[in-house]
Amino acid sequence: MSASYILKRVALIFYTLLVVSLLVFGITQVLPADAAVMMLGENATADALEALRNSMGLNDPVWLQYLRWIGGVLQGDFGTSLRTGQQVGPALFSALGTSLMLAVFSLAFMLVLALPAGILAAIRRGKLTDLLVSFLSYIGVALPEFVTATLAVLFIADWWGILPPAGYVPLSQDLAGGLRHLVLPVAVVSIIMIAHVSRMVRSELVDVLHTDYIRAAHLKGLSRSRILFRHGLRNALLPTITIVALDVGYLLGGVIVVEEIFSIPGIGRALMAAIQARDLPVIQAGVLIMAATYCIVNFAADLMYAWLDKRIQYD
Amino acid sequence: MTDFLRRLLMTPQGLLGSIIVVLVLFAAVTGGWFAPHDPDAMAALARYKPPGGEYLLGTDQYGRDILSRILSGARSTVTMALLATVLGTLLGAVVGTASAYLGGRWDEFIMRTIDAVMAIPSLLLALLVVSLLGAGGANALLAVAVAFMPGMARITRAVALTVRKQDYVSAAIARGEGSGYIVLREMLPNVVAPIVVELTIRVSFAVMLFATLSFLGLGAQPPAADWGLMVSEARQYLHRSPWILIWPSAIIAVTAIGFNLLGDGLRDALNPRT
């Protein structure tokens, strides 16, 4: 991988964030919300509102407002929340930490289940295991998070009382309690990805097992397990990295719903609250941070792919 | 055409998917005609009834018949999902084809911009559009269409570019066929097939996305009989009767599974070689 390729990718990330910032700024400009009214209340006098608008720069031309906002963002200043009056940046980044923890646990849980399921289905192609895995994956991709979350709360939390139905406890405070609160959200976020990734792993591995070099390995007399682990999986699992990275976009969407249902104070819940309250600075910063997360994960996946598979030559 | 239908119905996915989709579409078209009760009629004495007897699937917190509500909800939920997907596909197809046709720098610029929009999770994009336009069914439709547009643009462009490079297109050019013939008879049939497959599968995402928007309070508004809204409302009453929650959840899942199966069946039927 050449340095110019990496430079090009970094430039693309900046272009992506430029487009996203223009888009979200445009949307929030058109939103029927008046920041001055939100801060001073409905009963404020017209003079007071006008004075505040002038001091906040809301009467400036739109491009100047955008430049001022994006200039602040580049210096790490995401503005102040209209609803709470607090700095947006620190609040959102600590919420992002919570969401990322949820996402990382979900990814790990997904891989632990999806890889063996996909591999088993590919080895036992056409047999009962294969049918069972593909049957379950059809059901898995068809269940929206809010449905699985509600059913999980009904059956596991309410009827059996094994796990808490909602809430969040920081892991640093109480490790066991924190983990217990995470089980249901993690399981719910992972289901669709488990179904999707196990299907992908199966089809990749089926393709690889039909290649000439696998046949050659059989003819050489290598053992089945050696063929599978040394020759088959290494080639079949590589494309999975890219698929998982693209799924992160889906994961971030699922996190919004799950945080809302299980009352987890992450960035998704902060964004939902901001959208409902038309808290423009929080919406702008939240969308930008989510898009940046997606870009960085995909960039990292590309780098990892090229590092693991020496045949890949990006330029 | 009959040959294609036979191939579709031969595969288990195609058969099962077709049956489910036909049933769901039938319910969506007929709306509540076959509903045994008025979907909005409340009955104070018949609240939280379990399935069976007069109310086949039971009644909800206001004594409304759940079966009737699901049947009449099919119209709003499924019709909206179909319309949103078709609209999103058309918008995406225009952008994707234009990008493939223009080529060069324009192609690069359009596709990089599409990629950039795709960095926003589609649920979040839909949420933003709905918050811009206000909550409600028609606005949710537009939001889902906008959320699907970039993905469909990417797929259309990729398909159009591969088809353009095929030997049969070169052969048609070499035979001296007119560009109208090439585009309509050689390229279009091969471009449409993969897009129809993708569209079918997307309908299941659209059903789920719609239901999610309604669940979050940004799609259909009460007292509409909408599947996502039914799940959302049922959450408060799940201790009294879990059936209010289970039926609409199940019908959302079955519908999504049906369109997924049909999409996979179509893909197999349209590509006999793989």
Automatic annotation (TrEMBL), chain B:
Pfam families: BPD_transp_1 (PF00528), OppC_N (PF12911). The chain crosses the membrane at residues 15-35, 78-103, 123-148, 203-224, 244-263. SUPFAM superfamilies: MetI-like. Keywords: Cell membrane, Membrane, Transmembrane, Transmembrane helix, Transport. Residues 74-263 form the ABC transmembrane type-1 domain. It is a multi-pass membrane protein. Its main location: membrane. The keyword Transmembrane applies. Coiled coil: none annotated. It comes from the Bacteria. PROSITE patterns: ABC_TM1. This is Peptide/nickel transport system permease protein. It comes from Aquamicrobium terrae.
